[in-house]
## 1
Amino acid sequence: MAEIQLRNVGKRWGSFVGVDNFDLTIADKEFLVLLGPSGCGKTTTMRMIAGLEDVTEGEILIGGKVVNELEPKDRDVSMVFQSYALYPNMNVYENIRFPLRVRGIDQSTHDEKVRRASAMVELDDFLHRKPAELSGGQRQRVALARAIVREPNVFLMDEPLSNLDAKLRVSTRAQIKNLSHELAVTTIYVTHDQIEAMTLADRVVVMKGGVVQQVGSPTDIYDKPANAFVASFIGSPAMNLMDGAMSGGTFTAPNVKITGLNAPDGPLTLGYRAEDASLASDGNGQINAPIYTLELLGDATMISVRVGDALVSVKADKTYRAEIGDMVSISVPNEICHLFNANDGARIG
Ligand code: ATP
C-alpha cells in the first residue's frame, strides 16, 4: 500500500518560492503526471518526495508514514531520470542487478529478478552488452529495468523520455504505459510534454510558477481547463484564445462576433479548440478573416487567421485547398466556447 500524501508542501530558497502549498493525495497504484513549463517546480516536488530535497513547509507521507526526516534509501522509492547514468564498465545484466547488490538482497534471487525485469523491457537479448554498445532507447530501458528490479512501492520518473528521438519516445512511452499497468505501482512522472501527460496519466497536475493550477483526469483537463494557462498548455494544437469584449451577451474582437453568450459585460478571453470549430459556407461563421497560413497535416488541413494579436485556427478536411489571403468564415458555436476572466484567466464558463 503506497498512497502518497503531500500536505501543504512548500519549498523556498531564501525568498524564492520553488513550490507553494502543494496539497494532494496520490492513490495507491495511481499514475500521476506533473506537467508544466520549465521552472514550474515539477522536479523540485519530485525530489522532495524522493528525499533528495528538504521540505521547507508541510508534510509528505508515504503509506501513511511521515517521511520528511527519512533518508532517500529508506523511502522505498525508485527513480528514473532523463540522464540514465548507467555504469559504463558493467554490462546490462550487472547494471540491472546493481540495486539488488547494494541493498544486500538475497543473492539467490538476483538472477530471476534481473531476468524478469529485463524481459519486461524487452532487453533479454542484450544482457551481455555494455552501455556504449546500446542505442539511447535501449539505455533508457536498462534504466527502467534497474528501477523495476527492486520492486519498490513508488516509482518516480523525471522526464525519462526527453533524451530520445521523437519516434523512440512514442514507442518507449507505450512501453511505460504497458509496464505501469503490469506492475501496478504508484508512479509520479514529471514532464513538460502534454501529450505524454495525456497518454500516460490517471490524473494530471498542471503547475505554473510553483503553484498547482489544476488537478484532474486528462479528459477533465482537456474538456474543462480551470484557467486560460491550462487551456493554452493542453491539446495539440493548444486551445485558440482571443482577447475581446463582452456586451449584452455578444463577444467582439477584430474579425469576430459571437452572440448569445452568458458572461458579464467587459473584457473577456474566449477560447475554442481548432478541432471543435468548422469552416462555414457563405460567411455565416462567427470569425471572418483572410487566411494567414494553411498547413497540410495529412489527416486534415489546418487554417489559421489573425484575431488582433492572436492567431486562431480551424481544422478543415484534408482535401481543403485555398490560398493565403483568401477570406474564410469559421463557425464557432456557443457550445464549443470556453470563457475566461481577462484579468486572471480563471474559467467563468
Ligand atoms: P524543468 O522542466 O526545466 O526541469 P521544473 O519544473 O522541474 O523545470 P524545478 O527544477 O523544480 O523546475 O525548479 C523550480 C524553480 O526553482 C526554478 O525556478 C529553479 O530555478 C528553482 N530552483 C531549483 N533548484 C534551486 C536551488 N537549489 N536554489 C535556488 N533555486 C532553485
## 2
Amino acid sequence: TSDALLVFTPSGRRGRFPVGTPILTAARSLGVDIDSVCGGRGICGRCQVVLSEGEFAKHGLTSRAGHLSPWSAVEERYRSKRGMKAGRRLSCTATLQGDAVIDVPADSQVHKQVVRKRAEVRAIEMNPATRLHYLEVEEPDMHKPQGDLERVQAALAAQWGIEGAAADLDVIRVLQAALRKGGFRITVAVHEDRAGPRIVAVWPDFRDRIYGLAIDVGSTTIAAHLCDLASGEVVASAGVMNPQIRFGEDLMSRVSYVLMNPGGDREMTAAVREAISDLAAEVAAEAGIAPGDILEAVFVGNPIMHHLLLGIDPSELGGAPFALAAGTAQSLRASELDLKLHPGARVYVLPCIAGHVGADTAAVALSETPYLSDEIALIVDVGTNAEILLGNRHRLLAASSPTGPAFEGAQISCGQRAAPGAIERVRIDRETLEPRFKVIGCDLWSNEPGFAQAVAGIGVTGICGSGIIEALAEMYLSGLIRADGIVDGTKGARTHRIAGEGRTFSYLLHDGDPAVRITQGDVRAIQLAKGALYAGARLLMDHLGIDRVERVTLAGAFGSHIDPVYAMVLGLIPDCDPAKVGSAGNAAGTGARIALLNTAARAEIEDVVRRIEKIETAVEPKFQEHFVGAMAIPHATAPYTELAK
Ligand code: FES
C-alpha cells in the first residue's frame, strides 16, 4: 500500500494517508491544531512542524524512517526571506513520503498556551475572537453575476471553512478597492462571537499580525496591556492617571459632580475615552505598530468607571439601592466609544457583579478562578472600596466594603501614595522601641550605613499604605498601641518618640523634614478601614456558614505590597494559615487579558457572574456588629464582650 502512518505530537492523533499528502491537510482531517494565516500558500510561516523520529518507539511505529518530501521551492523562499529554526518545515508544503511522527511546536498551535507570568494562577489558552485570513478571491465574471462581497464570502467558506460571514458596512465600502489593489488577494480579519462570524477589516495585501488591548479603568489610574493576538504575548504596557480626577478625587465625588453639574457625566466620559485613545497610541508606539493595528479591546472597571466609559449616567450608583443600568457583559464597536483604534475594532466589557462590585472584580474572579476550586478562598481587592469574593466551586459570594482611602495613604497625617520617598517597610525594636524603615526607591534600611546618602536624592517624604500597616502592626507588637487602638502614652517613659498631643499621643517614626509621625488619628483611620474590610469578610463567612477560610488572596496594588502576616496581625483579614495567604498582583488586569485572548473565558465569566450571590453590606445589621468588633486589634470575637470592658 502507498499509505503511510502519520502520528502528531503532542496531541497523539494519528491516521493513514496516501504518500504525497500535505502534512497540513492530514492535520486538518485529524483535527490537529495547526495555525495558518495564509491558507497554505507558504507566506505566513505559522504552520511550522518538526519531524521527530525519536518518538517512533513510543508511538508503536515499525518503520525506522520518517519521511517528508525534500524542501520545496516555496519553503526555500520562505526560509531565505524570513528564516526558520533548524529542523522545521512548513506543513502546508511538506508532504508525507512514509511513516512519520510530526511534532507541532506550541508556537504553531492556534490554541497555544501563553507563557505564564509570576503570580498567575491559570494558564491562558489562546482562542482570540478576531483572526486573520488570507484569501484568493475569484475575479468578477459577466457570466456569473455576483457581488464582490459574495465572492469573498465564498472564498472564506471554501478556503477557511467559515460559512455565512457577515461584513461591516465600513468593510464593504473599501472592499472593491482592496480587491483590485491586491489583485484579488486580500487579508480579512474575522471577528466571531455569539452573533456569528463577521468581517471587520480588510487589507489589500498579506497581513499576519493584529493586536488587542486589555484595559483596567481604575478611578485613579488606567492601565493598558497591548497583546499580540497570535502569540498572546504582552508587547507593551503603560498606565496614565485617570483624567476624571479633576472632577473628583474618589468615586462618590465624581457621582456628586454629575448630580450637581448636568452634563458632567458626558465631560467625564469624553475625558476617559480620550485618555484611553492616548494610552492606545502610546503602547502602539512602544511596540512599533500603528493604533490601527489594534482590532480588539477588553475593558474592566468598577461600576462607576464602567458606566462613565460606556457613556451611561452613573447617578443611580450614588445611593441605595445602587442599581446598575446593565450588569451584563457588553460587546460593541470601538467606534461607538470614540476610541481611536482600527475602525472595525471590537470592544468587550466584562459583566458587573452588582451595584458596587464591578467588572474589575469579575476579572479578578476570572484570573483567580475560585469557582473551580474545592478550597474555600477569600479574595480581597483593596482600594477605596474593598471588593470581596468568598467561596469555592459550590458557592461564590461577593460584597463590597467601604474601606475609604486610608489604605492608599489618604486620611493619614503623613500619608502619601506609594511613590519614591514613601516609607513602605517598618520594624520597631521591642526593647528600645527604636524604629527602622525602608523607603520606596532605596534598598537600604534606615539604620544601615549609607542610608542618608542613598535617599539624599529622593528624601523621606511620607508613608504609604503598606508602610502604615507595618508601622501599626509593629507598634501593636511592641506594646505601643493597645488592642483598642489607643497609642499608649505611658510608653513615653521608655522612649522620647512618644509625644503627647492634647489628650492623645503619637509615635515619631522619622525625625526629619518632614517629620513622619503616627498619630492617634492615623490609627483610628486604619482601624475604620480595616474594620470595614474585616467585617465584610466576616459577613460573607456568616452567609457561607463557616468560621475559618482556607486561603486568602490579596489582589490589587495595595494587596500586592502589604505583607500578609502584618495584615493578619492587624486583623485586616480573618485568620488563616499564613502559608495560604498570598498576593495576586494585578489580578483585574490579568482577568482582562484572559478575556482578550480567549473568547471561551468570556462565556465562562458571564456564567460565573450570573451564579455569584451578591451580598449588600449596607443593609445587613450583622455588618455593623462585625464592624464594631473588628475595630479592635487584631479583632474581637462575637459577641464582642471584650469591647464592653
Ligand atoms: Fe502559511 Fe504554511 S500555512 S506558510
